[in-house]
Amino acid sequence: MNFVKKEIAELKGNPFTQIGEDWYLITAGTKEHYNTMTASWGFMGVMWGKPTFICAVRTNRYTYSFMEESEVFTLCFFEKAYRPALQFCGTKSGRDHDKAKETGLTPIEIDGVMAFAEASRIFVCKKCYSEMMKEEAFTESAVYDKWYGTDPLHKQFFGEILAVYEKE
Questions:
Q1: pTM score over 0.90
Q2: Rounded to an integer, what distance in angstroms lies between the CA atom of residue 111 and that of residue 162?
Q3: Domain 3-167 architecture
Q4: Phi, psi for residue 68 in degrees, rounded to 5
Q5: Could you write out the DSSP letters of every residue in the chain?
Q6: Residue 138 CB: number of other CB atoms within 10 A?
């Protein structure tokens, strides 16, 4: 595990590509009991004067209960070679699969929270706010219909970015 702690101002990369195209893993829970899921939606910026990442988890996802119960969580970003592992983690449930074992990813504990040794960048976040999306808040019914017509709404989790690690 050769990770180096970085300052937020040192980070390079396009968040639209890293989040929306390359995807990332949201992981919450303890060393003994955790889950991870792939995400391709999220926001990074400053909120309440703190560096913040906002991720969204549907209420029917296994990871949802871990996010609800956890004070901290990680966001792991990977090189393209790990795309099949992220595909698996986004389409298979941790209720039925040991995602780490079946993808070859190596769970590690960093700053007291679970992440993966193969990640190229890890954000350690402390949950500071969460809110359920509401159907009546959508200003365009077509957006709601496309993304939520048959699926449950997301809950947004705002995480203060406590630390960022990059692979050496």
A1: yes
A2: 10
A3: Roll (2.30)
A4: -65, -40
A5: --EEEE-GGG--S-HIIIIIIS-EEEEEE-SSSEEEEEE---EEEEETTEEEEEEEEETTSHHHHHHHH-SEEEEEE--GGGHHHHHHHHHS-TTT--HHHHHT--EEEETTEEEETT-SEEEEEEEEEEEE--GGG-S-HHHHHHHHSSSPPEEEEEEEEEEEEEE-
A6: 15
Phi and psi for 89 in degrees, rounded to 5? -70, -15
Can you read off the two tokens belonging to residue 39?
A: 């995400």
Per-residue pLDDT of the chain (168 residues; tens, 9 = 90+): 689 999 999 999 999 999 999 999 999 999 999 999 999 999 999 999 999 999 999 999 999 999 999 999 999 999 999 999 999 999 999 999 999 999 999 999 999 999 999 999 999 999 999 999 999 999 999 999 999 989 999 999 999 999 999 998
Residue pair 133/54 in contact by the 8 Å Cβ criterion: no
